Amino acid sequence: MKWSGRRSSENFEDRRGMSSGGKTIVGGGIIGVIILLLNLFGGENAQMLTPILEQMNQGNGAPTEQRDLTAAEIEEGKFIEAILVDTEDVWGKIFQENNMQYKRPNLVLFTDGIETACGNATSASGPFYCPSDQKVYMDLAFFEELKTKFGAQGGDFATAYVIAHEIGHHVQTLLGTSAKMRQMQEGKSEAKANKLSVALELQADFYAGVWTHYNQKMKNFLDEGDIEEALSAAHAVGDDAIQAKIQGHIVPESFTHGTSAQRKAWFMKGYKSGDINQGDIFAEIN
After folding, report:
1. CA-CA distance, 261 to 241, in Å (whole number)?
2. Do the bridges between strand 135-138 and strand 106-109 make them parallel or antiparallel, or are there none, so unpaired?
3. Distance (Å, rounded) from C-alpha 126 to C-alpha 141?
4. Are strands 128-130 and 135-138 parallel, antiparallel or unpaired?
5. Are 233 and 162 within 8 A, CB to CB?
6. What is the DSSP letter of 249?
7. Per-residue pLDDT tens for 89-146?
8. What single DSSP character describes residue 103?
9. Quick one: 64 exposed, middle or buried, by C-beta within 10 A (0-12, 13-18, 19+)?
10. Whole-angstrom Cα distance, residue 8 to residue 196?
């Protein structure tokens, strides 16, 4: 992906190299796997993590420390900021075309653990969007895990797809879709509530595809192979692929994010159409 030369964004926060005091959710081992299954591409489920696991971290505080970023880390940060700028430009245009105003979210890079308005999290949580502070949180170690443990192809556009997916959750917050989905889940069985969660996640994939469509149309930034990188990442984070990898069998009624095939299909629908009005996943899965 062609990404150099972008303007800087006032909504980019690089907190890597900083370790905050206070309780932090334990990562790694079986707990890390549990968090990953609960919250991979966390969407708006990050609020679930602290009430479930914070009690396991009493007395786990540490003094705040800071280190200088390496040259490679600084370059990574510039790339992430460039993608954020692209999402600001594209969604600003889309909202304007639909007589709305786009409120830009913040994107926060962190290392190991971080405190958010949705609770504490670690890199094991996966990238997630917190609607309470309207910020996307990412530890870039996640992308190495995506390749080594879940078989994703990797590449810069795989990272761009993940960011675009999380920004998609911000779009859902602005449009009121997320709040409506939570209302629809009230009183539903776990299986039916999960289907609504799947719809929310697939719509975020669709919005990632819409962003990709506009990004290419407006700026022609895509390189050969970029779409394949995105599809490889989407395949790796399908519920069926994760369950098969982690537990050796698949339980469809427990899906909360969608199958690999669904995630790829909805991303491609957004990419090919570029039309946000074609993303009513809720109507199609009920």
Report:
1. 10
2. parallel
3. 9
4. antiparallel
5. yes
6. S
7. 999 999 999 999 999 999 999 988 888 999 888 877 788 999 999 999 998 888 787 7
8. P
9. exposed
10. 36
